[in-house]
């Protein structure tokens, strides 16, 4: 007997619309193959929601989110806002609000390199081979949520970087638990040589580390971590870091996996799980049918695994992605140009190949 689950799909803006339909199709195919009953609802967020309601996260979407068992999200953002920083209502506010409202404080970003993409990166294969990192990015604190100010004459501005002890404790415990199931190494990344919020971060992680003596703990400054990640990615197992540093380091780490279009993520915390590619709405390729749908498809795999505990189903999805890459199918962003046996596809053709390989 299969499971019955309600999934809310929020495609968002730009390529979010294009790739999320493939994450959803994969979930539908899994439900059919494994005799589960997934019912889907759809919500709006971001620029499309501002256009429709004036609000980047309408109450209706939030209500639907609270009533679902898991959420599959695409991306938000529109060039209009990026080009006009004075606009007060912005798509990104919707994403930040839903993360806060649903208590999604831990953002897991696995950096998994598929064998066939070893040549897709600009990093040398011998440096990449064997790299396997799991980022724990804190998601509901830091400069993102600290007080924002603009002086009356509007010539100075500030965003408060603030962390509370409990916020560091809860994500640190999650990261240590994960490290225990992996290679038992945790690297905490901060800027404790300069920032007081980072000194608190390090102090708290040092305390929590005592609960996990079987895990080897390392503390690294963000500037060094950004360099080590590219120099020797294999030295990292679990990386624990704050909201802003985690945002930046994981875009950098996408080059280990070959492309932004390959990186999925899971945001978890108080209750419900929220699954999304780490990439944005990609104005440069939006509407052209070129976006890589694999990050959305791999986000669906994380959803099956983490929110529903359906590990075999999740593995089936990952295997279908692997087979598709082995067959030589590539979207533009992961084309290697190293072999003649490569077939460059658009979003829909690539999604369809994965779907074929699922069945
Ligand atoms: N989680 C989110 O919704 C999220 C994340 C990042 C950025 N954004 C928003 O997205 C907009 C664009 O931001 P950006 O350009 O800095 O970052 P982006 O992640 O959208 O794109 C960065 C680069 O990666 C490429 N790329 C991203 N996803 C891809 C995919 N699936 N396939 C192929 N190539 C892909 C893009 O073409 C672009 O060159 C902004 O408005 C930003 O605020 C949203
Ligand atoms: C769009 C933005 C708010 C978001 C973030 O900074 O968290 C994005 O870059 C991400 O990585 O999900
Ligand atoms: Mg980001």
Automatic annotation (TrEMBL):
**Binding-site list for Mg(2+):** 223, 247, 251
Q: Does the keyword Disulfide bond apply?
A: no
What is a single Pfam family found in this protein's UniProt entry?
Answer: Iso_dh
**Site (Important for catalysis): residue numbering on this chain:** 144, 191
Source organism lineage? Bacteria, Pseudomonadati, Bacteroidota, Chitinophagia, Chitinophagales
**Cofactor(s), names only, from the UniProt record:** Mg(2+); Mn(2+)
Cofactor binding summary note: Binds 1 Mg(2+) or Mn(2+) ion per subunit.
Give me the residues that bind substrate, please.
99, 109, 137, 223
Q: Which UniProt keywords apply?
A: Amino-acid biosynthesis, Branched-chain amino acid biosynthesis, Cytoplasm, Leucine biosynthesis, Magnesium, Manganese, Metal-binding, NAD, Oxidoreductase
Summarize subunit and interaction data from the UniProt record for this chain.
Homodimer.
**Location of the Isopropylmalate dehydrogenase-like domain:** 6-354
Family from the record: Belongs to the isocitrate and isopropylmalate dehydrogenases family. LeuB type 1 subfamily.
Name the UniProt record assigns to this protein: 3-isopropylmalate dehydrogenase
PROSITE patterns in the record: IDH_IMDH (PS00470)
Catalysed reaction(s) here are: (2R,3S)-3-isopropylmalate + NAD(+) = 4-methyl-2-oxopentanoate + CO2 + NADH
Explain the purpose of this protein. Answer: Catalyzes the oxidation of 3-carboxy-2-hydroxy-4-methylpentanoate (3-isopropylmalate) to 3-carboxy-4-methyl-2-oxopentanoate. The product decarboxylates to 4-methyl-2 oxopentanoate.
Pathway assignment reads: Amino-acid biosynthesis; L-leucine biosynthesis; L-leucine from 3-methyl-2-oxobutanoate: step 3/4
Source organism of this protein record:
Chitinophaga horti
Q: What is its EC number?
A: 1.1.1.85
| Gene Ontology molecular functions | 3-isopropylmalate dehydrogenase activity
Localization terms from the record: Cytoplasm
> Where does this chain mainly localize?
cytoplasm
């Amino acid at each position: 007997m299969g499971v019955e689950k309600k999934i809310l799909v929020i495609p968002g803006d730009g390529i979010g619309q294009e790739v999320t339909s493939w994450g959803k199709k994969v979930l539908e195919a899994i439900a059919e193959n494994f005799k589960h009953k997934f019912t889907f609802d759809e919500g709006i967020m971001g620029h499309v929601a501002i256009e429709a309601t004036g609000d980047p996260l309408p109450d209706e979407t939030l209500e639907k989110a609270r009533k679902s068992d898991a959420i599959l999200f695409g991306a938000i953002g529109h060039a209009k806002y990026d080009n006009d920083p004075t606009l007060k209502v912005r798509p990104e506010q919707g994403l930040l609000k839903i993360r806060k409202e649903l208590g999604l404080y831990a953002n897991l970003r696995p950096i998994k390199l598929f064998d066939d993409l070893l040549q897709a990166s600009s990093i040398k294969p011998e440096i990449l081979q064997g790299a396997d990192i799991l980022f724990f990015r804190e998601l509901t604190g830091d400069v993102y949520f600290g007080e924002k100010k603009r002086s009356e004459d509007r010539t100075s501005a500030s965003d408060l970087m603030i962390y509370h002890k409990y916020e560091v404790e809860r994500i640190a415990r999650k990261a240590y638990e994960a490290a225990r199931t992996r290679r038992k190494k945790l690297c905490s990344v901060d800027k404790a040589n300069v920032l007081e919020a980072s000194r608190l971060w390090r102090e708290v992680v040092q305390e929590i580390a005592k609960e996990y003596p079987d895990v080897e703990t390392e503390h690294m400054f963000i500037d060094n971590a950004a360099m080590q990640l590219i120099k020797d990615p294999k030295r990292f197992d679990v990386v624990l870091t704050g909201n802003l540093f985690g945002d930046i380091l994981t875009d950098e780490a996408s080059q280990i996996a070959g492309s932004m279009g390959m990186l999925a993520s899971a945001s978890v915390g108080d209750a419900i799980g929220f699954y999304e590619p780490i990439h944005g709405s990609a104005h440069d390729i939006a509407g052209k049918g070129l976006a890589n749908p694999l990050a959305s498809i791999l986000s669906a795999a994380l959803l099956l695994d983490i929110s529903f505990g359906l590990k075999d189903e999740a593995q089936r999805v990952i295997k279908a992605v692997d087979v598709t890459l082995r067959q030589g199918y590539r979207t533009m962003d992961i084309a290697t140009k190293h072999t003649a046996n490569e077939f460059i596809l658009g979003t829909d053709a690539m999604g369809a190949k994965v779907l074929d390989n699922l069945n």
